[in-house]
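Protein modeling request. Please complete all fields; requests missing the sequence field cannot be processed.
Requester role: graduate student
Desired output: 3D structure, token encoding
Chains: 1
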Amino acid sequence: MKVFIFLLLTIFTFLNSFSQDIIIRKDGTKIRGKITNEDSTSVYFKTTINRNVVNTSLKKVDVDSIINRERIVFTSKNILKTDALSYIISHPSFMYERVLNNNISAFFVFGLGKESSESGEDAKDSWMSEFGGYSVRFQIGDFKHSEKINNFYRFGARYYLDISGTDIPEGVHLGASLGFYRTEKSFSILDTSERERNSYTINEKLNMLSFDVGYQSVAFKVIALELVLSPGYIFGTKTEAYFHIDNNNNIYRSSKTIDGNGFVLSVSLNVGIAFG
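Delivered output (276 residues):
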């Protein structure tokens, strides 16, 4: 945890050192650079031309507006969002984002858990999906399957590369987050007398470190629209327990714990409202 926070602060400090002001000319073109001085008639700034940093100036009569990264005061610093895609899988999630300064914000994501159960052919299909068809080929009796996904939590921070408005942070952003996920799965097979003969339980305690790339825009000054891609690495443990009763009523139990590591890619389509 300490390493994650240290890396996050180091990355954002580095990015913040490269923040640029934006000068918008009356013809709509934008000039990115670092404003060094102003007087009653001109704006003086550093900018990059053909990979060379030069000092130059622009008459104020040609300037429509100036977005000074160090002087921006956002109208709203709090944004509540929900992921529209999460409702498709009946696992809705909500996000709170708090603007910390002109480029950086922190966020917290809360996802609602869910429980489900099934029997018969649906449960058999779930069993085959988890363990393969061979494991059920010679089984006789009813299949049952239940699954519980606990509430999940994720927190992190993001850095906006190009602030294009003053209502809320807009534009492309980079971020990192750490999430915590817990799931419980149970698979069982009953004989013709409804007695449980085989049972598997899987408990997963997983964490995910993800890096976010996204774009946020604003409509009507208070509505936030955001698309985020989050490649991540999952790490944690996966515990499997097995229970079996043979035809002589002998009971067999076994369990094992393995690493639950792997790479994932998630997509979020967030819609929210800004306030305060």
